[in-house]
Specification:
Blueprint lengths: L12 H7 L13 E7 L10 H17 L4 E6 L3 E7 L6 H19 L13 E5 L4 H9 L1 H4 L5 H11 L12
Antiparallel strand pairs: 1-3, 1-4, 2-3
Helix pairs in contact: 2-3
Length: 175
């Protein structure tokens, strides 16, 4: 409910807002970064071919641009993917992830005949990223192969969930 603003004679609503110091916001602006993580179905190592993985990343960058959510960095291993993107004002996180997974699944199945059974896991994890932490998250994504010599995908996701204080059901970690 807006407060009652008296209307002196002869003052239009536009002028009244100006006189009272109320300004309309002429545009909607945002700058929200998110870190999205999801794995292949049952964490099967479908993406062992590094050349295919690089082409997949390039394809996903193109999809994200069409969704007004440009990918800043993308990386992963043979069985999961990480990406940082700037969140669109026009699409929800769920819509962005659903479209990235849907189109990339079809792309992989079309490009790699031996991967006709390729699918992503049903779920995903997403975390906010402060602009001041973008560079450190980018470095983290660059070192996924080495990082996963020491820690499993499931352990990695659990660490993120704990860090962000997210309650979860263990049965669905990397389903």
């Amino acid at each position: 409910m807006s407060p009652h603003i008296p209307n002196p004679e002869g003052v239009s609503l536009r002028n009244k807002r100006y006189v009272l110091g109320i300004k309309n916001m002429a545009q909607s602006l945002s700058k929200i970064y998110i870190h999205i993580i999801f794995s292949t179905k049952n964490r099967f190592p479908f993406l062992q071919d590094e050349s295919l993985r690089a082409k997949l990343y390039a394809f996903m960058v193109g999809v994200s641009e069409k969704l007004d959510s440009p990918i800043i960095k993308i990386g992963g291993t043979s069985e999961h993917i990480h990406l940082i993107c700037k969140l669109s004002r026009n699409y929800s996180v769920a819509e962005i992830v659903r479209e990235l997974k849907r189109t990339s699944s079809k792309w992989i199945q079309d490009k790699a005949p031996l991967l006709k059974t390729f699918h992503w896991q049903n779920g995903y994890s997403v975390f906010s990223v402060s602009p001041s932490h973008i560079e450190s998250v980018k470095k983290y994504l660059e070192n996924q192969s080495e990082h996963h010599r020491k820690i499993s995908f499931q352990e990695e996701v659990r660490k993120f969930l704990k860090k962000y204080g997210i309650k979860y059901d263990e049965r669905y970690i990397g389903d």
